Amino acid sequence: MDHDLQEFAETGDIAKDVGQRIELVRHFASTGQLPFFQQIDSVDTPRVGIRGRQCVLLGSNSYIGLSTHPDVVAAAVEATNEFGTGTTGSRLLNGTYRLHVALEQQIAAWLGHEEALVFTTGYQTNVGTIQALLGDDCLAVVDSLAHASIRDGVRLSRAVEAKFEHNDAESLAATLRSHAGTRYHRILVIVDSLYSMEGSTAPLERIIDACKDAGALLMVDEAHGIGVFGPTGGGLTQRNEVAKDVDILMGSLSKAIGGLGGFITASRDFIDEIRLSARSFWFSTSATPGAMAAAATAIDIIRSDEGSRRRRRLERNSRLMRDLLAPLDVALQRPDDLGPDWSPIIPIRLSDEMRTALSWNQLRDAGVFVTPAIYPAVPMGEPILRVCMTSELSEDDVRRCADVLTAELSWALAAV
Fold this sequence. Notes:
Elements: H1 3-11, H2 18-30, E1 42-44, E2 47-50, E3 53-57, H3 70-83, H4 98-111, E4 115-119, H5 122-133, E5 139-143, H6 148-157, E6 160-164, H7 169-178, E7 187-192, H8 204-214, E8 217-221, H9 236-239, E9 248-252, E10 262-266, H10 268-277, H11 279-282, H12 289-302, H13 305-324, E11 345-349, H14 353-365, E12 368-369, E13 371-373, E14 384-388, H15 395-408, H16 410-413
Parallel strand pairs: 3-12, 5-6, 5-7, 7-8, 8-9
Antiparallel strand pairs: 1-2, 2-3, 4-10, 9-10, 11-14, 13-14
Helix pairs in contact: 1-14, 3-12, 4-12, 5-6, 5-10, 7-8, 13-15
EC number: 2.3.1.47
Domain Aminotransferase class I/classII large: 54-404
Cofactor: pyridoxal 5'-phosphate
């Protein structure tokens, strides 16, 4: 590690001066220490090759290892050979292939909604859906830690925005009551099921009760919950048996499903409204044939006995890692007793961005690749190293990585 950078980290002053921050980023980049935009040269799940070094990947959203599953890869190759590498058009025009339609039907049947609509990316899914459903005469009520794509969608919709405290159903109810005297065309509450940085899960039952009391619609972002929770991998809404009480459900094709894209499931009326109004849907080239075929095969696996086995391995690895990292204060924040008592996302909180960057380099040098998160991915002044567990890690992998994390982070955590 660069000793000058460690001295900067120990003072903490570097994060307060913009000019110094720019110089520091440039220095990190020139010395190969910048923890972002790292080039991955090879993948042998769960290991990746980076700058000539093999690292165990603890930063992947492919929670059950489907991004490199041979059947998923074969489906992508077969569809590419049949249809080509791209659709060369939007869904509105020449970009709706039978693969898109079949996947939408498959998703709707799996998750118990009337219809589904596939977008090219998850970000576009949230932005387009929210922009389509809300206008300046509507109210959007969002969790304070909702994903950036949700917040950006609300801004683009020009709806009135209100926030409530993270995973606090009483705060949600109070926020809804504070707007009770105002006439809105539509009130939409938006939450994540599994929060990508916190690793926390939403208290869905209590949120649903608050929405019903206020006559509000509920949209749940299951990007990180799909494939992870539920008897057939249908997410936290399926696990908690509340899917019927969710008006709009968003999911990602690029997390546990292991590919690229996003989708919305809802009633036929809502899907038609989104299909005809979402600008990110209208004005984007549709998802590639390979991505659609890969997603369809991955969903079949998720719903199968193999998918159940992979979820059990993911839960085992997640519980074990959290137990082993107990000295680093990574206790799961649970909003109630109804949600799962485990999560594949484990945040390690550090005191400043410098320590976060330097700690990341130490871990990479020791053969462990985690993902750093700084503002705006997390609140200002609350950087984390995010550990993401997957089913493909062996128990030996988990134990060795936990030993490395505990040993290498002791100096950085001393100031927290």
